[in-house]
Please model this.
Amino acid sequence: MKKNIAIIMGGFSSEYEISLKSGQVVYDTLDKSKYTPYRIQIFKDKWVFVNEQNDEFPVDKNDFSIRVNGTKVSFDCVFNAIHGSPGEDGMMQGYFELLNIPHTSCNMYQAALTFNKRDCLSALKPYGIKTAESYFLNLGDDINEDAIVDKVGLPCFVKANRAGSSFGISKVYKKENLKTAINDSFKEDDEIIIESFLDGTEVSVGVITYNGQVKVLPITEIVTDNDFFDYKAKYLGESQEITPARIDDNQAEKVRIIAKKVYEVLRLKGFSRSEYIFKDGEPHLLEVNTVPGLTTASILPQQAAQAGISLSELFENAIEEALQ
Model:
């Protein structure tokens, strides 16, 4: 009997458009002979099932079911394609865990931890994971530019602490530009992280649970035409994503070991993609994404293809792992 799969997409953050694209790719790719997929769009003002004719049917949040033409539909598994809140920060994970509905992403605590960049980096430091120097600010804190520059130097990156797709991030070269960048980041989040600039090769490493085993996918090198790997570089073609990365065997082995260690130390499940920059030959962790982009242009699907895993195999495996 075919399984009913809810593909959740949308979300509350600036990433909702990318999430809708990711969710649509999953919907288009899933084998309809094995699964009956349903596009479930989740926004602050509505949770709806959207059919092929773009008719909308409300989701009953009491048990995460829908009613279509008088028939109640419940779901065997949820495929999480929401980037940002509430799909990547633990909210949806907690909700589905309360309802005892399997889902393809990591558990609630792990999602909340990895979505909070500064907490995640702090949790990993005792395990020898190298990171950039960082300075934290909460909305309302006094902004001491001299203290910031003394700690992280210039240039530096000002980032919204809990946002993705490079929303709320700026590269700052001059001390007098710090406040503008900080205010820009506060538009995305009330916590920010300011990090030292690491000058080196940037790579992205996908780690997944595949056929019951933790698998590190081929490494992708990020070469952007812009000042850093920003939104336009990620989604509008203003970068090169080279898989496998043009790094030597020693560097590749180092970053593979660390990416697997991060996945296992954090007790992740499903998909993950972590970003690193090599400084003095050593990979320094930037961040961990637990609901990475799944569009045809996204990095994780490119890495899976390089590993000989098709999109349909990638998505089907995630569902089967969740169902187990």
